[in-house]
Design goal:
heterodimer; A: mainly alpha; Arc Repressor Mutant, subunit A; 2 domains; 11 helices; B: alpha+beta; Jelly Rolls; Phage tail protein beta-alpha-beta fold
Chain lengths: 192, 358
C-alpha cells in the first residue's frame, strides 16, 4: 500500500511541478518561499491521498495549493493582490494535463540532457560517468582519483539539481536561484 | 517554516538518495531510511521527488550508446550524438526513392512465380506512383551503435535502432514510413482517418493506433507488436500459390504479443507474453536481453551495434547457450564474462574479436 502510494504520487503529482511553480510564483509575493510552499503542498497531497486518492490528481494538487495559500494569507496577514485575485480565478483545466504529461521519450531525454549540461562542471562529470557511462560510484571515484565520499556528495547535489531543472521547467530557472546557487557552491566544494 | 529548513530537508533527501545509490545498501540502512521517511510527510515527498527524477535519469544512458570516448563530451555535444542524428530530406529525394523502390521490388520478385510475380509488379507500379507524389520525405538514419528517437508531426514516435534508416512522409491523408534497412519501433498516435503505413521492402505494416517494431534484414521482416493490433500485408502467402483468386495477398492481423517473421516463403507467427515482447525491444534503452540464445546468435546481435565484430572460430563454441542482459556497446564486458564462464578464449585482432574453444 505504502509503496503504491509512492508510485502514484510520482506518476500523478510530480509531473505537474512546473505548472505548480508557475502558479505559486504568480500568487505568492515572496519568491524565495516558493520552493517551501511547493513541498508543503506535496506533503498535504500525499497525506490526503493516504486515505483516498483523488480522481483528478492535478485538480486536487492545485486546490491544495490554493488552500495552503489561503491559510498563509490569513495567518500572516499579508495582502497580495495577485494572490487574492488568483484564488478566485484558479483555473485547473484538464487540457493542460495531457500536454504536460505526455512528454515523448525523445523530449524527455532532451530535457534530461539539458539539465545535465546545466550542472556545474565537476558535478556534471560525476553524473555523466554514473548515469550515462553506468559506472558505479566506486568506479567513478577510482576513475577521477577521489574518495567515494566525495562522489556520494556530488551525486547528492547532482540529484537535487537534476530534480530542480527537470521538474521545475522554466519556472525553476529564475527565482529559485537561491537553492541552485547554494547547491552549485556545494558541488564545487566537493572538488578534490 | 523557513527556506533554510526546507533546504536541509532537500539536502538530507539528496544524501539518502546518494547513499542508496552508492551500493552496499543493507537492511539496516533501509530501516534507517524508512524511519526518516516516516518522521514527516515533508521528508517523504522530498525523497520521492528526488528518487523520481533519479530513476528517470536512467534514460541518459542512451546518450552514451555509440560513444567511444571515456570522458564526458562538452555541454551540448549530445545534440550531435548519434542519438539525435537527423538528415533532412536532401540526401534522398522522392525521385531516387521511387527508382530505388522499383529496383528493389523487381529484384525481389525475380524469385517468385506466376501470379505472385504479376501481383507484385502491379503493386510496385502503384506504390511507385504514390512515392512520386510524396512531398519531400524526410530521411533519418543511425550509424552502427546509434539509437535515435524521432517525433513525427502527428504525435507518433519512432525509435531507430542501430544502423537503420527510414524515410517519413506525414500528409493529411496518410502517414507513411519506409524502412530502408535496420529496425524501428513505432508508437503510433491514434488517428483512424490517417492510416499509419510502414513499408519494409514489399511488406506493409498498417496500424491505426498501436505500438510495434519492424526489423528488416533484406527481404525478411520481423514484426513485434506490443500494443493494439496491426495488419501485415504484402507477404505472398501459400494461399496465393494454391490458386486463391484474390490478387492481393491475404492480410494477416497481428495482435499484441505477436511476433511475425515474414519472408518470401510466408509468415511465421509466434505468440509471446507481452512483457517478453517488450523485453525484445530493450534495445531502445541500449540494452540487449538474451534468454537461452546460442552464442552465435548473441554475437550476431552484438555485431549489429559495433564496428568491431565478434567472430566465432569454433562451431562447438557457437552452439553454447547464453543468457543475460548487456549494454549493446559494451562488448568487452560480454567477452570477459564469456571467458570467465565458458571454455572460450578471446583473441583480439585489429578489427575484430575471435572466439576460440579452449
Amino acid at each position: 500500500m505504502a509503496e503504491s502510494l509512492d508510485a502514484w504520487f510520482k506518476r500523478e503529482i510530480l509531473g505537474h511541478e512546473a505548472a505548480l511553480l508557475r502558479y505559486l510564483m504568480r500568487v505568492w509575493p515572496r519568491k524565495h518561499e516558493v520552493d517551501d510552499l511547493r513541498q508543503e503542498t506535496y506533503a498535504r497531497v500525499y497525506q490526503a491521498a493516504r486515505n483516498l486518492r483523488p480522481t483528478s490528481p492535478r485538480a486536487f494538487l492545485f486546490t491544495t495549493a490554493h488552500h495552503l495559500i489561503t491559510d498563509r494569507v490569513r495567518r500572516e496577514r499579508i495582502v497580495s493582490i495577485e494572490a487574492v485575485g488568483d484564488l478566485e480565478a484558479l483555473d485547473v483545466s484538464v487540457d493542460e494535463i495531457t500536454t504536460e504529461q505526455r512528454v515523448s521519450a525523445r523530449q524527455e531525454l532532451k530535457r534530461l540532457a539539458q539539465a545535465l549540461d546545466r550542472l556545474p562542471p565537476r558535478c556534471r562529470t560525476v553524473i555523466w560517468l554514473r548515469r550515462v557511462e553506468g559506472l558505479s560510484q566506486k568506479e567513478v571515484a577510482e576513475r577521477l582519483g577521489v574518495s567515494v565520499k566525495a562522489i556520494e556528495q556530488q551525486v547528492s547535489k547532482g540529484g537535487r539539481l537534476l530534480a530542480q531543472y527537470m521538474l521545475g521547467g522554466e519556472a525553476a530557472n529564475g527565482n529559485t536561484g537561491q537553492v541552485s546557487r547554494s547547491s552549485e557552491d556545494e558541488c564545487e566544494h566537493g572538488k578534490p | 517554516m523557513s527556506t533554510e529548513s526546507l533546504k536541509s530537508v532537500d539536502q538530507v533527501a539528496g544524501d539518502w538518495l546518494a547513499q542508496r545509490d552508492a551500493g552496499q545498501w543493507t537492511e539496516n540502512d533501509q530501516a534507517r531510511l524508512d524511519r526518516w521517511l516516516d518522521e514527516s510527510p515533508l521528508n517523504r515527498v522530498a525523497y520521492l521527488r528526488l528518487e523520481y527524477v533519479w530513476e528517470r535519469s536512467q534514460r541518459l544512458r542512451a546518450l552514451g550508446t555509440g560513444t567511444r570516448s571515456n570522458d564526458p563530451p562538452p555541454p551540448g555535444a549530445w545534440l550531435f550524438s548519434p542519438f539525435f542524428e537527423q538528415h533532412p530530406g536532401q540526401d534522398v529525394t522522392a525521385q531516387e526513392a521511387d527508382a530505388g523502390a522499383r529496383t528493389t521490388r523487381r529484384h525481389g520478385a525475380r524469385h517468385r512465380v506466376g501470379m505472385a510475380l504479376a501481383a507484385s509488379v502491379v503493386l510496385a507500379t502503384v506504390l511507385g506512383a504514390i512515392w512520386g507524389l510524396w512531398p519531400q520525405a524526410t530521411a533519418y538514419s543511425t550509424p552502427v551503435g546509434g539509437i535515435a528517437s524521432v517525433p513525427l508531426a502527428d504525435g507518433s514516435k519512432v525509435t531507430l535502432n542501430t544502423n537503420s534508416q527510414i524515410r517519413v512522409a506525414v500528409t493529411e491523408r496518410e502517414r507513411r514510413i519506409e524502412l530502408e534497412h535496420g529496425e524501428a519501433y513505432f508508437e503510433v498516435a491514434r488517428d483512424p482517418k490517417r492510416p499509419f503505413v510502414v513499408r519494409a521492402g514489399d511488406k506493409r505494416i498498417i496500424a491505426v493506433g498501436t505500438s510495434f517494431s519492424v526489423r528488416r534484414n533484406g527481404d525478411d521482416v520481423d514484426v513485434t507488436v506490443t500494443e493494439g493490433r496491426v495488419r501485415l500485408e504484402g507477404t505472398p502467402t501459400v494461399r496465393i500459390q494454391q490458386g486463391n483468386r484474390s490478387r492481393e495477398p491475404a492480410p494477416e492481423v497481428l495482435s499484441a504479443g505477436t511476433v511475425a517473421r515474414a519472408s518470401d516463403e510466408g509468415v511465421l507467427l509466434e505468440s509471446r507474453p507481452i512483457t517478453e515482447a517488450q523485453e525484445s525491444l530493450s534495445w531502445r534503452e541500449g540494452v540487449l536481453v538474451f534468454h537461452d540464445m546460442t552464442l552465435a546468435d548473441a554475437a550476431a546481435e552484438f555485431n549489429r551495434y559495433n564496428v568491431r565484430k565478434i567472430v566465432i572460430d569454433d562451431p562447438r563454441a557457437a552452439a553454447f547457450h547464453v543468457a543475460g542482459s548487456f549494454r549493446a556497446d559494451n562488448v568487452d564486458a560480454f567477452l570477459r564474462l564469456l571467458e570467465r564462464g565458458y571454455p572460450i578464449r578471446v583473441e583480439e585482432q585489429d578489427d575484430r574479436f575471435v572466439l576460440m574453444g579452449r
